[in-house]
C-alpha cells in the first residue's frame, strides 16, 4: 500500500511521507516508554517507597508531556499529509486521464474511475489521517511490552509472545475475507452506479412507453445484486472480525492466568504481578485497536491498489520527434487489422484511400466495423497490424494534439456543455470573430434556435444540451465543425433519428463542408450518402464493395441489398394509415 502511494507521489511529497513516518515511529516508542515507567512506579507505590514514587511520577510526567507533544506533531503532520495526498491524487488523475487513449474509457472503467476519484482518494487520505497511527501503535507498543515482560519474567513474556500469532491469525483471516468480498462489492457497486446513470438518461424513453413508474429491471437487478453482495460480505466477515476481538481477550486472559499461577507458586511477588498485568493491559489494548482498524486499512489498501491500476494504464504513446502532416485532408488505411480482443478481430487487412476535399461514405450491417474504423482513424486505439496515415503521416508519428486538430467529429449522441449557446459554438474555435461563428451558425440554421430562446445566444443550454432537441443539438455540433475549419470532418450516424427539417439542414451543412474539407460519413440513412464521391461497404471487418451509388446498385451486391431493404422500410412507413 505505501509502495503504491510512494509511486504516485512526487519526490518532495515522498520526503514529507518519510518524515511523517519517522515522527510516527518516534511517537510510538515514547508511548511505549511511558507505559514502561508504570512498572517501577507501581512497584514503588505498592511498597510504600515515597522517594522512588515521587521520582518515577516526575519522570512519568515528563514522558507523558513529551508523548503528548509528539502525538500532536505526528497527528498534525498526518492530517497535512492527507490533504497533500488528496490534492495530488486528484491532480494526477486529471493529468493522467487526458493522456489515456479515448478507447480506454469503457462504461465499466468510467464507473470504476468515478468511484476511485471519490471514495478511493478519500480512503487514501484516511490512511494518514486516521488509520496508520493507531495501527503502528498497535504493532510497536506491544512489541516493546513483550520485550519488557520478557526481561522482567520470561514466562510472562513468552505467554505474550505466543499470543501474537493467535491475534495475528484471527485478524489475517478477517482481512482475507474482507479483501475477497470487497472485490465483489466493488464490482456490484460500479454496475449499480452505471445503471443509475443509465436510468436517469433514459427517462424520456421509459416514460414514453409507460415504464416511468413501473421500475427499471436492469437497475432493480443491479441494486439487488449490490444488496446481496453487501449482505454476503457482512455474513462472511462479521464472524471473523468477532474472532479477532475474541483472540485479544483470550490473550489477556492467558496472561492473567499465567501470572496468578506464578504468584501461587511463589515465582514472582504479587506487587510484580500487578505491575506486569498493567503492562499486559497496555499490551492487548493497542492490539485491540489495531484489530478494529485492520479491516478499514485493508479496504483503503484495495482502493489505493485500484488507483494504482488506473495510473498504471498505459497512456497514449507520443512520438519523441513528431512529424507534421503535409497532405491536408488525405486519409489512408494500409492493411489494417484490429480487434478489441486479440482472439476476435473486428477489422482484417483493411485498405482504404480517401483523397482530400471529397466525401467518403462507409456503410454495412451492424457489427461490420464501421464505428471501429473511425475510432482507429482518430486514434482511440492503435492498430494491431498495418498503418493509418492522416495528411500523409502515420497517426502514431504525430502528436495527439496535432492529430486531433485535423478532425471535427460530429456524432449521433451530441454532448453540449452547460454554457451559453454561443459558447458551445465557439468551442470549435475560441478565437473566432463574431462574424465567423455567426456565419457558421447561419449555415445550419442555429440562428432560428437562438431567436426563440429567452436570452438568445446568451441562453444556457443545460447539462448535455437538455434545453434543446436532439436535432437542434446536432445542428450546434455541425456549427462547431464548420467553425473549426478542420481538414477532415467525421460524421458518425449524424442524421439518425432526425426529423425532416433537421435532416435537411444537416445535409446542407455536409454539402458546405465537403467543398473545404474531407468528409467521412458513417450512416444507416443511405439516401444521405447518394452523392458521396466514394462509398465503401464493410462486412465482417473487410471491404467487400466500393464505388459510387449507382455503380454499387448495378453490382447487385450487399449495398444493393441494403438499399432495397431501406426502400421497403420507407414504403412500409408511408403506407401506414
UniProtKB/TrEMBL annotation:
Q: What single Pfam family name could you report for this chain, choosing any that match? A: ABC_membrane
Q: Where in the cell is it found?
A: Cell membrane
Annotated signal sequence range: none
InterPro entries, sorted: AAA+_ATPase, ABC1_TM_dom, ABC1_TM_sf, ABC_transporter-like_ATP-bd, ABC_transporter-like_CS, P-loop_NTPase, Type_1_exporter
Its domain of life reads: Bacteria
Domain named ABC transporter: which ranges? 331-565
MF annotations from Gene Ontology: ABC-type transporter activity; ATP binding; ATP hydrolysis activity; ATPase-coupled lipid transmembrane transporter activity
- Write the record's keywords in alphabetical order, separated by commas: ATP-binding, Cell membrane, Membrane, Nucleotide-binding, Transmembrane, Transmembrane helix, Transport
Instruction: Cite the ABC transmembrane type-1 domain residue spans from the record.
Output: 19-291
Membrane topology summary: Multi-pass membrane protein
- What are the transmembrane regions? 20-42, 54-73, 127-148, 154-171, 241-264
Record's GO cellular component terms: plasma membrane
- In terms of one coarse class, where is the protein primarily found? membrane
The name of this protein is ABC transporter
Q: What lineage is this protein's organism placed in?
A: Bacteria, Pseudomonadati, Pseudomonadota, Alphaproteobacteria, Acetobacterales
Amino acid at each position: 500500500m505505501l509502495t503504491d502511494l510512494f509511486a504516485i507521489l512526487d519526490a518532495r511529497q515522498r520526503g514529507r511521507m518519510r518524515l511523517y513516518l519517522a515522527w510516527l515511529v518516534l511517537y510510538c516508542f515514547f508511548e511505549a516508554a511511558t507505559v514502561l515507567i508504570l512498572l517501577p512506579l507501581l512497584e514503588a507505590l505498592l511498597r510504600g517507597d515515597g522517594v522512588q514514587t515521587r521520582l518515577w511520577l516526575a519522570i512519568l510526567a515528563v514522558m507523558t508531556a513529551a508523548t503528548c507533544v509528539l502525538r500532536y506533531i505526528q497527528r498534525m503532520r498526518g492530517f497535512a499529509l492527507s490533504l497533500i495526498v488528496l490534492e495530488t491524487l486528484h491532480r494526477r488523475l486529471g493529468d493522467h486521464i487526458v493522456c489515456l487513449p479515448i478507447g480506454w474509457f469503457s462504461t465499466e472503467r468510467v464507473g470504476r474511475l468515478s468511484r476511485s476519484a471519490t471514495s478511493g482518494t478519500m480512503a487514501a487520505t484516511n490512511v494518514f489521517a486516521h488509520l496508520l497511527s493507531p495501527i503502528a501503535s498497535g504493532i510497536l507498543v506491544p512489541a516493546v511490552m513483550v520485550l519488557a515482560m520478557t526481561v522482567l519474567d520470561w514466562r510472562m513474556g513468552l505467554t505474550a509472545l505466543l499470543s501474537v500469532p493467535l491475534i495475528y491469525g484471527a485478524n489475517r483471516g478477517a482481512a482475507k475475507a474482507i479483501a475477497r468480498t470487497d472485490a465483489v462489492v466493488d464490482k456490484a457497486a460500479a454496475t449499480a452506479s452505471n445503471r443509475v446513470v443509465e436510468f436517469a438518461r433514459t427517462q424520456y424513453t421509459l416514460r414514453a412507453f409507460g415504464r416511468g413508474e413501473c421500475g427499471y429491471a436492469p437497475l432493480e437487478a443491479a441494486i439487488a445484486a449490490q444488496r446481496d453482495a453487501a449482505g454476503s460480505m457482512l455474513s462472511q466477515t462479521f464472524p471473523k472480525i468477532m474472532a479477532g476481538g475474541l483472540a485479544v481477550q483470550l490473550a489477556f486472559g492467558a496472561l492473567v492466568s499465567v501470572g496468578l499461577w506464578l504468584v501461587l507458586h511463589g515465582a514472582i511477588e504479587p506487587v510484580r504481578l500487578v505491575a506486569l498485568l498493567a503492562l499486559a493491559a497496555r499490551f492487548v489494548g493497542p492490539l485491540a485497536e489495531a484489530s478494529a482498524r485492520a479491516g478499514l486499512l485493508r479496504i483503503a489498501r484495495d482502493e489505493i491498489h485500484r488507483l494504482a491500476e488506473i495510473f498504471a494504464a498505459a497512456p497514449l504513446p507520443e512520438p519523441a520527434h513528431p512529424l507534421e502532416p503535409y497532405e491536408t485532408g488525405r486519409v489512408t488505411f494500409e492493411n489494417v487489422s484490429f480487434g478489441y480482443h486479440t482472439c476476435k478481430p473486428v477489422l482484417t487487412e483493411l485498405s482504404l484511400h480517401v483523397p482530400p476535399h471529397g466525401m467518403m461514405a462507409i456503410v454495412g450491417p451492424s457489427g461490420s466495423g464501421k464505428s471501429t474504423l473511425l475510432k482507429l482513424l482518430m486514434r482511440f486505439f492503435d492498430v494491431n497490424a498495418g498503418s493509418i496515415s492522416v495528411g500523409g503521416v502515420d497517426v502514431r508519428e504525430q502528436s495527439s494534439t496535432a492529430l486531433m486538430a485535423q478532425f471535427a467529429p460530429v456524432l449521433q449522441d451530441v454532448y453540449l456543455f452547460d454554457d451559453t449557446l454561443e459558447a458551445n459554438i465557439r468551442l470549435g474555435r475560441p478565437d473566432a470573430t463574431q462574424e465567423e461563428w455567426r456565419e457558421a451558425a447561419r449555415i445550419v440554421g442555429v440562428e432560428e434556435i437562438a431567436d426563440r430562446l429567452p436570452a438568445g445566444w446568451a441562453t444556457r443550454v443545460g447539462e448535455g444540451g437538455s434545453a434543446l432537441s436532439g436535432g437542434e443539438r446536432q445542428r450546434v455540433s455541425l456549427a462547431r465543425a464548420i467553425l473549426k475549419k478542420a481538414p477532415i470532418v467525421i460524421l458518425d450516424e449524424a442524421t439518425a433519428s432526425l426529423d425532416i427539417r433537421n435532416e435537411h439542414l444537416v445535409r446542407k451543412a455536409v454539402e458546405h463542408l465537403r467543398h473545404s474539407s474531407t468528409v467521412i460519413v458513417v450512416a444507416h440513412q443511405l439516401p444521405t450518402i447518394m452523392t458521396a464521391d466514394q462509398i465503401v461497404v464493410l462486412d465482417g471487418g473487410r471491404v467487400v464493395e466500393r464505388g459510387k451509388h449507382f455503380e454499387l446498385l448495378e453490382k447487385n451486391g450487399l449495398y444493393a441489398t441494403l438499399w432495397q431493404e431501406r426502400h421497403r422500410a420507407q414504403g412500409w412507413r408511408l403506407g401506414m394509415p
